[in-house]
Design goal:
about 290 residues; six-stranded parallel sheet; three-stranded antiparallel sheet; binds adenosine monophosphate
Length: about 290
């Protein structure tokens, strides 16, 4: 266990220590909640931690910038990393354990096994970031196996990721309940993301067009528009006026993520765009 000051959560870095600690907690009858993150924590991550603390007796936060989910040319090297600050942010939440493994601890030499989730992982983020969800599913399954949680918490912010994780959990008969927590936003509407740290003031202002486009979609549905072409057109207009480089703006089925023609039951509006060198994603559930 690494040095820590008072109130800061214990940080461990090996799978063996994690297993031991979780099994000890379970032996005394406690339920275990897992919150997987890549660190550079913000209030969005902390909302998952709070939910786990409400539901479970023992909460484990994992901090691992997973190389397998980054494509070539993506921001793996410059992704923000500050374990000390993350520990300080977690201290008031009184989490039981932080698991912050090295790359070598997670992927031993010769690592050759991957988890592929088909269909729900194919479109949107999956199409733009080939191999991304393979990396996500592989690391999340490894974390599930190491921590053996009763519940695991993910954010709606990465809507497609939550669908991919649910699919994997169902398909592989994992005895884990998946919780999906609402998107936490800044006061101006921008969804919190560790990547927002990359944005200049101008880029941030333009990036606000994502949440504005989603509010417009909600407004149209609230006023009776059902046809998704009109909703998507309104979203695209806002994104191109910003301007941001739109990657997709789509209204999809909440479970299959396939495009829908009309918003009859719940649907999800997804938006992704590049602003300068930064990719931003956001979404909203249309009811
Ligand atoms: P990351 O560190 O970006 O991999 O995110 C870790 C978890 O936090 C994922 O389940 C994300 O969906 C979730 N998360 C990230 N940003 C937010 C946010 N603004 N609101 C709610 N959850 C979030």
């Amino acid at each position: 266990m690494k040095n820590r000051s008072a109130n800061q959560p214990a940080v461990i870095s090996t799978v063996a220590e994690l297993r031991w600690a979780v099994r000890a907690a379970k032996a005394s009858g406690g339920s275990v909640g897992l919150v997987p993150t890549m660190g550079a924590l913000h209030a969005g991550h902390l909302s998952l931690v709070s939910q786990s603390k409400r539901d479970c007796d023992f909460t484990v936060v994992t901090i691992f910038v997973n190389p397998m989910q980054f494509g070539p040319g993506e921001d793996y090297d410059r992704y923000p990393r500050d374990l000390q600050k993350d520990q300080e942010l977690l201290a008031p939440h009184k989490v039981d354990l932080v698991f912050a493994p090295s790359r070598e601890e997670m992927y031993r030499p010769g690592h050759a096994t991957h988890v592929e989730v088909d269909q729900v992982a194919d479109r949107w983020e999956g199409a733009i970031r080939p191999g991304h969800f393979r990396g996500v599913a592989t690391v999340v399954l490894k974390l599930f196996n190491a921590a053996e949680p009763d519940r695991a918490y993910f954010g709606q912010k990465d809507y497609q990721q939550s669908v991919v994780i649910r699919r994997m959990t169902t398909d592989l008969d994992l005895p884990i309940e998946i919780g999906v927590c609402p998107i936490v936003r800044d006061a101006d509407g921008l969804a919190l993301s560790s990547r927002n740290a990359y944005l200049s003031t101008d880029e941030r202002n333009r990036g606000l067009s994502l949440s504005r486009s989603l509010r417009a979609a909600e407004g149209l549905v609230a006023s009776g528009t059902r046809d998704t072409k009109s909703i998507e057109a309104a979203m695209r207009k806002i994104l191109s006026a910003a301007p941001v480089e739109m990657e997709y703006a789509a209204v999809v089925d909440p479970d299959t993520l396939l495009p829908v023609d009309r918003v009859e039951r719940a649907a999800v509006a997804l938006a992704a765009a590049r602003v300068g060198g930064t990719r931003l994603i956001d979404n909203t559930i249309l009811r």
